[in-house]
Amino acid sequence: MPADNAEIAALFDRYADLLEIQDANPFRVRAYRNAARVVSGSPRSMAELLAEGRDLEELPGIGKDLAAKIATIVRTGALPQLEQLQQRVPRALSDLMGLPGLGPKRVKLLYRELNIRSIEDLQRAARSGALEKLPGFGAKTIARILGGIESRGSVPQRFKLADAEQAAAPLVAYLEKIRGVKTVTVAGSYRRRRDTVGDLDILVTARRGTPVMRRFTRYDAVAEVLSAGATRASVRLRNGMQVDLRLVPEASYGAALYYFTGSKAHNIAVRKIAVGKGLKINEYGVYRGARRIAGRSEAELFAAVNLPYVPPELRENRGEIETARNGKLPELVSLADLRGDLHAHTTASDGHDTLAAMAGAARTLGYAYLAITDHTRQVRVAHGLNARELRAHFAAIDRLNAGFRDFRLLKSAEVDILDDGSLDLPAALLAEMDVVVAAAHYHLALSAERQTARILKALDNRCVHVLAHPTTRLINQRPEFSADMQKIFAAAAERHVAMEINAQPERLDLDDIQARAACAAGCKLVISSDAHSAAGLANLRYGVDQARRAWLSKEDVLNTLPLDRLLQTFHH
């Protein structure tokens, strides 16, 4: 099985880590970081593109050398240059960079001054007082490092939803091709579209005698077979993810799909309802005594306990059962409901495609509008634009729009919120924009009180229409910043500022819980891709997943509106 996108990106990121520790050319380091982001964010697998004969140099920021390295990884699962570099730099040093408070500069310092080569070395140095003698290692930093070390392994590894999808899709396709297999479905938190996935639960129906279990355990991406039986097998993939496969009879398929989709809390609550009706629900069906009365489909199971069908995204025991009983479940927003995307970047800042290419991709997706939100000057690492450059950018947008009849690029920017809550552009320029998207990128370690005050001041600016990635989290990398989100939601609702569900797979911010809280506080929301390439526009669906988990209907999401009504809402 060829390496998937997550595996390729992980190898590039590790290579970049080790290059940074070695003080390599920063442009070289940045190239590998960019390649990791491009690969992990691609809606198509690199293996598929290569199999189709596509030139990987067409990908943004991927030159001849990187394209060849991607092809090597797809073919062999390894990056020879990384293996060579790891012989010169202890592999554990890049693991240290995963701890809070440690970046490449500090890891280099630890290695050179204290010869720290492992997490165990670091822990001993922190407890002995040796770290305190190094510049930049104050008491708070050391406490954060120790806390990060202690928490490692205490939480089971969870994979980003998009990474889980990269592993699941080719495996499902492989299983579906086995002669005699009828259906293959991924259940569990993957089907509920949680932002992270612990493992994959796959259900299969097949004709008697189909060798599905044997073929499953021989799948090329399997690193270890954990168990193998006639109707159940469990494996661990090369990326570390566990996959459990169950062969179920068609008469029990709906019950098994329901049972293994979960969540556990939801299932327990529905089983209690069943018990009150003299029924029993398990993975094989719904039973009255010894007689199975339902189980072939999920709809059949819900009907047996007098409940309407509850979409998988809502099955978390957060009120969906009582709401369903009362016939008040919302009609959840869908990808087809979205009329446009309100957060996208071009080559003018840190994007990889031109204005024309982004417009073309958005039109191909059927959108009526796309907001171009290149960074402003404060975000120097992303080549942020100053006022003069933005006005020239807007003129280019006007020229393109002159050639469209059924589509419009919106003049916008991802305007940085400064540490005091002011914005990175003058009010006169903000007033020229169709939509102003404000975002915090720096000063994320402020106290909750200062961070809240900072965001509230930004929301007080009458030009602001959307607060982008409101909690600033990065999944498995950076937690939410400390802030009173309820105060922020209340202020945003009062000032008619929409909260964003940022659909970048590493963000998904707001998450489902925060998005539901924002809606309950009276906020409107937008679902935006934060695309940095034409291909990145396809990530919008991950934002829709979180919106559905948040119980949002199309009426809660502003970019389901046609363009004229959207602009009226922003400029009321």
Structure description:
By secondary structure, the protein is an alpha/beta fold. It folds into four domains: about 5-150, DNA polymerase, domain 1, CATH 1.10.150.110; about 160-245, Beta Polymerase, domain 2 (2-Layer Sandwich), CATH 3.30.460.10; about 250-325, DNA polymerase, thumb domain (Beta Polymerase, domain 3, 2-Layer Sandwich); about 335-570, Metal-dependent hydrolases (TIM Barrel, Alpha-Beta Barrel). About 40% of the residues lie in helices and about 15% in strands. The protein has 24 helices and 17 strands. The strands form four sheets. It has a seven-stranded parallel β-sheet. Strands 2-4-7-6-5 form a five-stranded mixed β-sheet, with helices on both faces. Strands 8-9-10 form a three-stranded antiparallel β-sheet. Strand 5 (about 220-230) and strand 6 form a beta hairpin. Helix 22 packs across helix 23 (about 540-550). The chain is globular, with a radius of gyration of 25 Å. The mean pLDDT is about 90.
What is the count of helical runs? 24
Taking all Cα atoms into account, the compactness measure Rg is 25 Å
Could you give the distance between the termini? 55 Å
Poorly predicted sequence stretches spanning 5 or more consecutive residues: none
Q: In the CATH hierarchy, what is the architecture of the largest domain at level 2?
A: Alpha-Beta Barrel
CATH class of the largest domain: Alpha Beta
Helical content class: 40-55%
How does the SSE layout of this entry go?
Blueprint: H1 5-21, H2 26-41, H3 46-51, H4 64-76, H5 80-88, H6 92-96, H7 104-114, H8 119-128, H9 139-151, E1 159-160, H10 161-176, E2 181-186, H11 188-191, E3 196-197, E4 199-206, H12 212-217, E5 222-228, E6 232-237, E7 242-247, H13 253-261, H14 264-276, E8 280-282, E9 285-288, E10 291-294, H15 298-304, H16 320-325, E11 340-341, H17 355-364, E12 369-372, H18 387-401, E13 408-416, H19 427-431, E14 435-439, H20 448-459, E15 466-467, H21 485-495, E16 498-502, H22 512-520, E17 525-528, H23 540-549, H24 563-570
Parallel strand pairs: 4-7, 11-12, 12-13, 13-14, 14-15, 15-16, 16-17
Antiparallel strand pairs: 1-3, 2-4, 5-6, 6-7, 8-9, 9-10
